[in-house]
Amino acid sequence: MGTREILKKEQGSHRMGKHVVISANEAADRLAVRGLIEAYGHCTDRRDAKGRMSLFTPDTHFVAYMNAKDPTPSRNCAPAVCLLPSSRT
Fold first, then answer.
1. Would you state the pLDDT for residue 6?
2. Where are the beta strands (DSSP E) in the chain?
3. What is the pTM of this model?
4. How far apart are CA 89 and CA 74, in angstroms?
5. What per-residue confidence (pLDDT) applies to 89?
6. For residue 57, what is the DSSP state?
7. Between 34 and 87, whose confidence is greater?
8. Residue 38 region, left (φ>0) first, then alpha (ψ -120 to 50), else beta?
9. pLDDT tens-digit profile of 24-80?
10. 5: part of which helix (H) or strand (E)?
11. How far is residue 62's CA from residue 79's CA, in Å, rounded to a whole number?
12. Which DSSP letter does residue 12 get?
């Protein structure tokens, strides 16, 4: 089953009784993404800037939008700069 077929199944799976079948690889990917999001939140809650930075690759470009009505990013820099608590780029 390809990605398109899985997405089509997921779009109709919001009713009770319908189950989405995903591959073991996709399940592992979903868990990995969830773990990354949880680790980011954990580090953020504890103000652990080094921990947050460790979650990104060195070539990551960090863009944050703090105002939903403004299409211009509030922060636009490398994680080493953006994720430090004292930085305001």
1. 55
2. 62-64, 75-77
3. 0.60
4. 8
5. 43
6. -
7. 34
8. alpha
9. 999 999 999 999 999 999 999 999 988 988 998 888 888 888 898 999 998 888 776
10. helix 3-11
11. 6
12. T
What is the C-alpha to C-alpha distance for residues 77 and 30, in angstroms, rounded to an integer?
A: 27
Mean pLDDT of 7-23: 66
C-alpha to C-alpha distance for 69 and 49, rounded to whole angstroms: 28
Residues 6+ apart with CB under 8 A from 81: 87, 89
CB-neighbour burial class of residue 66 (10 A; exposed 0-12, middle 13-18, buried 19+): exposed
CB 41 within 8 A of CB 33: no
DSSP 13: T
User: What pLDDT score does 34 carry?
Assistant: 97
Q: Work out the number of other CB atoms within 10 angstroms of the CB of residue 53.
A: 19
- Residue bearing tokens 């989405």: 20
How far apart (Å, rounded) are the C-alpha atoms in residues 54 and 44? 12
